Task: inverse folding
């Protein structure tokens, strides 16, 4: 194992999202879309994590994890406009307690792509009061959890949500090419984050708040082309700067980063693709690294660029997602090894990194890919709901164990002095 060093108290673990693992989320807009045939797959029982969460957390603990990111499903907590489900709140409190009992630091996401069906039908993130409606839900959750949760993520990948829902139209609310609506949704999500930041801090002063930002490395297809460089800069501004401008750094206590791949862009075609670029299909770029089951190139170099870039904002950085979907376990292991080497290098060069959470704990319902994108540390048989650890778990457990051992040695050395 390459000699990797991480600071004491470093958070190691994995991430999940409610609709992707719980099963039976009948009150949200994705479930509606599944039943109406507007998305390719139905989540159904997913991983039955709503019932099996303790078993899954036992696995995480046995693998040396000390943190776990999960999301609360808004549509369970508020299944109808004027109805709150206290049993759902009690369930998520049980989840937090179960994590704490196993020595796992809870990292809570409040919005991970899905919305209550009533919210979407009433206009969703186009509504002028959408942030207030979301904040009412946030307030209930935060007051239920009290001071048991330190790390909070208000929204997961807002730029991805807006792109998929209002630009490409592949996800609810299926609004294709609606740039004005996309801009309204982006602003309302940013306002929801700002409101939630203050709501969380009022109820839990020791809480640390961020959002999970999808942070691709953005590069021009033809570096010698001025128009490609301008398109890459414009797309980078939209993908990696805009939401931070809308929220302001003053409403962030740390930076949550999801990193998977790079985006290579080429200026061509119509106005929007000249300004923001189109995805470059050049063989020279697409063949540079292994490609995952969802078509994402493994590009560890971009991970280092992203970590240093966001580290310069002056806030601690938590890697909230990083993973590779494949059936080739050697490719998955190489992806993890290379990215952890980059992670350790960033720590050594001074980036204030506080943790790494792999995507995902177990194979799940991967949105439009359904069960076909295998990201998990555990392989899941969806018929029997059995979990089987993949070979990469042994490597990760060694890294996690080494970090804990070094921290213990430092502590004992300090005590002896």
Result:
């Amino acid at each position: 194992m390459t000699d990797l060093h991480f600071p004491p108290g470093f958070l190691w673990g994995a991430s999940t999202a409610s609709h992707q693992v719980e099963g039976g989320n009948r009150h949200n807009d994705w479930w509606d879309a599944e039943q109406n045939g507007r998305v390719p797959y139905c989540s159904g029982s997913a991983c039955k994590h709503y019932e099996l969460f303790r078993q899954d957390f036992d696995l995480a603990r046995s693998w040396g994890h000390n943190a776990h990111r999960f999301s609360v499903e808004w549509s369970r907590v508020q299944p109808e406009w004027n109805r709150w489900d206290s049993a759902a709140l009690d369930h998520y409190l049980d989840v937090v307690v179960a994590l704490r009992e196993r020595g796992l630091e809870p990292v809570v996401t409040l919005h991970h792509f899905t919305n209550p069906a009533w919210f979407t039908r009433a206009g969703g993130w186009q509504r002028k009061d959408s942030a207030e409606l979301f904040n009412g839900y946030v307030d209930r959750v935060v007051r239920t959890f009290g001071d048991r949760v330190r790390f909070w993520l208000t929204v997961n990948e807002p730029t991805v949500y807006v792109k998929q829902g209002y630009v490409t139209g592949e996800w609810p609310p299926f609004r294709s090419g609606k740039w004005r609506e996309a801009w309204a949704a982006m602003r309302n999500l940013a306002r929801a984050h700002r409101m939630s930041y203050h709501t969380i801090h009022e109820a839990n002063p020791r809480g640390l708040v961020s959002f999970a930002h999808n942070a691709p490395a953005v590069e021009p297809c033809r570096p010698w082309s001025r128009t490609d460089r301008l398109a890459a800069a414009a797309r980078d501004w939209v993908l990696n700067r805009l939401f931070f401008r809308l929220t302001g750094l003053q409403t962030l206590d740390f930076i949550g980063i999801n990193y998977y791949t790079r985006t290579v862009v080429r200026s061509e075609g119509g106005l929007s693709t000249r300004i923001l670029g189109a995805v470059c299909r050049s063989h020279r770029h697409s063949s540079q690294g292994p490609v995952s089951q969802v078509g994402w190139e493994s590009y560890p170099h971009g991970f280092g660029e992203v970590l240093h870039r966001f580290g310069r904002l002056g806030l601690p950085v938590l890697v909230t997602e990083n993973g590779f979907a494949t059936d080739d376990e050697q490719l998955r292991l190489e992806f993890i090894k290379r990215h952890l080497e980059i992670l350790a290098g960033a720590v050594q060069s001074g980036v204030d990194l506080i943790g790494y959470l792999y995507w995902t704990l177990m194979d799940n319902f991967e949105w439009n890919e359904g069960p076909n994108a295998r990201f998990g540390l555990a392989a899941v048989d969806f018929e029997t709901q059995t979990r089987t650890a993949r070979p990469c778990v042994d490597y990760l457990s060694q890294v996690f164990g080494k970090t804990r051992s070094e921290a213990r040695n430092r502590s004992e050395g300090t005590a002896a002095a």
About this structure: The chain has one domain: 11-215+317-416. The two ends are 31 Å apart (CA to CA). The first strand starts at residue 11 and ends at 15.
